[in-house]
Amino acid sequence: MNNGPVSLDLLGWNKHNKTDLQLPTGHAVSRVVVEHRGAYELLGPNGALEAVLDGAARERAHEPTDYPAVGDWVVHTLDPIDNRRVAIVEVLARHSMITRRATGAAPLPQVVGANIDTLAIVTSSDQDLDEHLVERYLVTAVGGGASPVLVINKTDLGDGDAIRGLLIRRGVEQEILMVSAKTGDGMSALQGLLAGGATVAFTGASGVGKSTLVNSLVGDSVLATGSVDAEGAGRHTTVRRELLVAGGGALIDTPGLRELQLWDGEGLDEVFSDIARFATRCKFADCSHRDEPDCGVADARTEGDLNPDRLASYLDLCHELSELDEEIEEYERTRRRRRDARRG
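-> structure tokens emitted (344 positions)
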């Protein structure tokens, strides 16, 4: 990580017309570049800093999404509170928040990154395409307020056009970039995503070359890179989320994910806009598109106007989100009972 001072503009402060803050004496604004368990690394005009959340801010944090995450803008003290770490006193309002369901039994959200402009969903031309996983990433991006872009990497090792054709036939309407980090083909278009202080987060399955793309954009080998085995299983070379300054903007590399559990369905209708259009023809407003009569979606499938696999993916996501809602309701009931029992 760069340890020297970095201007807020270079970190993306003015990308969304943020106004100057009236800061208390002895305070400054920086951006969270790394999140540890209970501690953070910040970068800004005062250089690289280690930080923790101060007591008052911790008291105000009731949900996992209330805590700082990589990409957040935070107000912090200039003087350390324990001879080493400064105190984060406020997390500024986010314009986007990429969230997934956290690992573990409890239905809780995990913020993957905040204030992200573009989520670059990286696939590889030398690996089999998982359309369902791509659709999960698209829903997560759109629902979180970021613009998704599909990146087909390693075009020097396989038929990227074939992957692109599969995505288009699947119904993907988002921009698709063809790149090779090794040869440099298509990298200028990827670089253009960072223009004007934008923040781009890279995500995708293991072994698709995210870290190699990040190193190319940063211009230095700041991240370890790996390979895939004979069966195409990638090594998790990125072990943490980290924000880096590159090409007039900021980028975030995320660990490779073999699966992605949704936290909400805000982006579902936009990503599956074709299904949403046919759903307006359904007789019942709460139609599940499975076995109800006069279902516009089922009729479109029968007439060959909908990709059956795409519809199956959509219905799977709807079922998953419905089960998640039930889990959250039960989890909240259990929390209330325990809280009432402690009071009683």
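The radius of gyration is 22 Å.
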